[in-house]
Each structure stands twice: as C-alpha cells, then as structure tokens.
Amino acid sequence: MDTRPAPDALAAVLREVATSGPSSLARVATYLLGAPDSHATETIGSIAEATGTSTASVTRLARRLGLSGFKELRVALATLPTGMGRGPGADDGVVLPGISWSDTTTDLLRKLAAEERRTLAEASRLLDPDLLEAVAARIHAARRLVMFGVGASQLVTRDLAAKLDRIGVLSHVSADRHDALAISGALSGDDAAVLVSHSGTTEDVLEVARAMRDRGVPVIGLVSRSHTALAGLCDFVLRTSQGQEAGVRPGATSSRIGQMFASDALCLAVMRVDPARSRALLAATRAVVDPLH
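== MurR/RpiR family transcriptional regulator ==
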C-alpha cells in the first residue's frame, strides 16, 4: 500500500515549512515550491547547493514530509505540477518569501532586513578567496574588459564598471546582446569578459558566453549556482547567493544583493592587486570631482 502523502497534502506541508521562518528547511521548501516537477530531476547535491544548505537538510525535509528519504522526495515532486505548490491565491498573499501584503511596514522592514542579512552571509560563504584573487589578477591584466547582463544583472555590471573605471580598469558595459556579440569579434585572449546571470540560464548571456569562448576570451561568470549552462561556459565562476524570491515579484531583491556583494568584493580585490596605483587613481578622480560638490 502506498503511504506517501497525496500531492495536495505534500504541497500543504511544503508551504507550511517554507513560511515557518528563516531556516535551512524553509530555504529548501521554498526552492522546491518554485517548480516542483522540474526539481524532481535534480540531484540532492544540486538542490543543497542551490539553496545554500546541505544534503542533510534536504533529507530532513523529505522526512518532515513523511517520506523515507530523497529518492521518495523526487518521486513525490514529480506528481506536483509547477504552480500547484504555491496553492490557490498564493501570489495574492505573498510579495516575497515570508513577506505578505498584510504585513505592517514595520514587519516588512524587519523581514526584509533579516532576509538580506542572510543573503549577505551566504554570499560571503560562497565566495572562494583564492578564486577571487585569481579573477582580480586576470581583470587587472586585461587589455579590455567587457561586461554583460540582462535586467537587474545589467545594473550590477554598470555599478562594477563605474568602480573599476576609477582605478584604471576601463570597462565597456554592453547594452544588449547585439552590442556584446559585435564587440566579441574584436576581442582576444588578452581581454576578459564578465557575464552576470542569477539563474545561469539567460539565453542572451549564454549566446554571448559562447561567442567569447570562440574568440578565446577568458570568461568570468557571476552566477548563483555552479552547475548551470553559464557556469559550464566560464573559465572562472564566482558564486552569488541563491536568495529567496517569489515567482511574481516587483524585481530582483535578495538575488541582486548577493550579486552586488560579489561585485564589491571583486572590485576591492582588483584594487589590492596594485594598491599604490589604486590609491593614486582614486585620489586623482576624487580631486577632479571635488569642485562639483
């Protein structure tokens, strides 16, 4: 006799765990609710990595759902269609995970601050110091640096470029795929490209990554998961926080915070490659704009 919970019961428990407050189980439950049938094909390791948790957390969630382990969890998820996990009217009640339309402004500020603190802590843990230094050295040595991202990710590239320009690393931020592809034809192994995509599956970014690789351009990716299509095309992958965001939302929130943390860390690491030069250029650029303030 099949003792596994029915799909509607499974969805109800997942929603309960996801909204129970900050915890590793809540992060895993929230992630699985986003697209349960597609997550049914993932490995336990990739789910743990995507949520910034551990394989033990994924197993504990399976047992919390009344299942024997991860194998049964995969089977159960396959019976739960995308969107069903959110339940009727879920998008009407939740702005972001843990934040609802009925929350007071005080609640909103408290919950948002807690989520962004968690995102920053995860982002700090995910960045490999040795890799960060290697990427910084490559950027510092590059003849030209090209950056590309779509939507909120493009805002991150613009912020990083503005910071790097002030320390002598002149960067070009491509406004769209056409521009990035055209520029790739003039690049070589002496240059470098920074591509930003939270999901690692944005087709425009993937196309640019392929073009850069064809030209032998070192590709640096800022992506939330290391097992993605974009990560597979990069020479260097800097992990950003997965974050927790609802399917329908006003825009990137925690994911952008994670990307900005990685961007700021990368800029500071580039400055440290040649501290004397960086200090001199920062002083010079400050002197130029001082009269404007």
